[in-house]
Amino acid sequence: MSETNPLKRAADKVADALHGEPAGPEDGIPGKPGFQSPPVAEPTEPREPLPPKPDQTGPDTVSPTGQPTGAEQARMAQSGSHLTNAQGTRLYDTDHSLKAGPRGPVLLQDHHLREKVMHFDHERIPERVVHARGAGAHGVFRSYGTAADVTKAAFLAEDVETPVFVRFSTVLGSRGSSDTVRDTRGFATKFYTSEGVFDLVGNNIPVFFIQDAIKFPDVIHAGKPHPDREIPQAQSAHDTFWDFVTLHTEATHHTLWNMSDRGIPRSYRTMEGFGVHTFRLVDAEGRTTLVKFHWKPKLGVHSLVWEEAQIINGVDPDFHRRDLADAIEAGAYPEWEFGIQTFPDTPDQTFEGIDLLDPTNIVPEELAPVQPIGLLTLNRNPSNFFAETEQVAFHVGHLVPGIDITDDPLLAGRLFSYLDTQITRLGGPNFPQLPINRPHAPVNDMLRDGMHQTAVHRGTAPYRPNSLDGGCPFTPGASADSASLDGAYVETPVRVPEATKVREAPESFDDHFSQPRRFWLSMSPPEREHIIGAYTFELAKCYEQAIRERALQVLANVDPELCAGVAAGLGLPAPEPTVPLADVEPSPALSQIGHTWPTDGRIIGIVTGPDGDLDGVRTVRQEVLESGMVPLIVAPTGGTLGDGTDALTVQRTYATARSVEFDALLVAGTPGVGADAYGARDAKAGEPSLREATPDPRVGLLLAEAYRHGKAIGAAKGGQAALEAAGIPLDAPGVVDGDTAAAVLQQLVRLLGAHRVWERFPSAA
């Protein structure tokens, strides 16, 4: 195996940590629950807690006031070999309440019972109102230095490395909802910079539903489940959502993005991120530049197809968080380039006629190219989901010198809202002292006391000016020999025009259709078909006919083809536009199709059986690993295939495998028939008359689904019969066969570069 293979590096790290003991991802496959495999019998010999897996770590060990402690990560976790209570007193039993005799009543004096149940009763905190379901990871951001001419932010200087924590999330669903729902995704990044914390709290869609934050409660109330029945969960396919967005046509652009493939990403690793708003950069001389922030995934932007997403919601609702954790554990570290679009900071804050303060607008990359300024790599999984992913607290007002805000009215409301929600969720104003939120810069803030205060402050004068504490803390420029404000955060002195206080929007906010039309015209034929299908599905779920008709009128003002396609699916007439169609140029950068991307971390399903081409499977499995991808062997039953040291471990059975887990399938030899191929035992096996069928009916379902979803499929050494049995022509687009599995794999990898076989998605046109 190649020494540069990330899967081997991950396995080697585990072996090194164990001083040679065989542990970690079995055969390079991620997903092992713990640091080492357990014995069958319960361990009884006391020992210290096992370390975490090599891919897992906690927040850096800094004090509540931002000082490096030098403490080992292990000192932040549980310690000691024996069970204790919260005060460190050893306990001899935790399975039985203290009673007056074995059959007597439980005694009120059982302080261990009281403490244990009390803590359990309070171990949940309020979930986020929005973005409740998420997943996170630690990483590092390395700056290229290419932004140094437009910002003085220290973390954007050349070759500066900054620790980060990133949380991905869905917007509408509860913590218990599914990952692959059609929804906007959060992409929030916490930079632990030398000048304080900078939070870039973005989404995977560059625009928002509304232009003013005062409407945020309204759009979320509309998108959430209906309050009378609390259904439907984690989706927008219902009346209240479409009632709102068809009455507020400023939502049209975001809705169109959400109905596109962008609304159902393949993975967090293949998802773009955007800062949404226009921000202001400030250089060392005080010059300002307007900017939009972008995250560009190195693996490309890829999505699920709708049926695939629906299957995943039932088969594996944790699909996205599992994919992220497994990729990091396997050493296939996700990467994004950080980029900026820059614009002159003119008094009208527009660019090429586009209002930069309107969060429902984008600036096409053809007009303002995205300039790469750094690389984000996620390389460590959290060691505790609650302490890190659940307790991390972001705020758009966490800024550093060199980055400032603009007068975007949506951004203004977010600056107010985020602190409020942290106080409710995290129990008080001291949430920045939670380990995951602690800055890595010295903190001397004069904020004192409050719930959950963990810093032990000194001194007697937490106010300014003071003399009792020697005048500390000082402000930059306070000393006699310093007239500079270097290092301080200073708001940009933007001139505010004289105006009358009004509750109005500028006229430039009235154009609700030209940007959605550009997005539609930029899509390829398959992507347009997916958008039409999404609108048809969502609106067909609405009960009220009036809402469907109103939605069609909105679509008619975007594009007649879009409106006619959705109207046909709803069985309604397509209305005429009520406004002239906008004359806009397409932006090819908005399409996800037409590029070739790396295949790192892609999952190859190798379908075989006891009589399959096991030698070919061994060879192709090794080649998949060395290519930085993940091979999963699918066979009739679990256990191993073959004998001795060359035995192959089976990762999925015909009963547990579904096509949605794989990016490509390779059938090596003739698959067998599982002993559990009974419809009553596994409905996917079909009728009892199919019991002796070859191949197993579930293999046919696996292949048919993959084919229908546009995935690359290969067959070798007799596997062609399985494809034919599934009704898949060997000469169909994206179907390859050959004499050896290794030769077929090479062709599959080439096909994977385009993500899907798009030729299998014919359009109505």
UniProtKB/TrEMBL annotation:
Residues 1-82 are annotated as: Disordered. Residues 9-19 have a biased composition (Basic and acidic residues). GO terms for molecular function: catalase activity. Residues 58-82 have a biased composition (Polar residues). Its cofactor is heme. Pfam families: Catalase, Catalase-rel, Catalase_C. Residues 84-472 form the Catalase core domain. The keyword Oxidoreductase applies. SMART domains: Catalase (SM01060). InterPro entries: Catalase, Catalase_AS, Catalase_clade2, Catalase_clade2_helical, Catalase_core, Catalase_haem_BS, Catalase_immune_responsive, Catalase_large_C. Its EC number is 1.11.1.6. Keywords: Heme, Hydrogen peroxide, Iron, Metal-binding, Oxidoreductase, Peroxidase. It is an enzyme of class 1 (oxidoreductase). This is Catalase. It comes from Streptomyces cyanogenus.
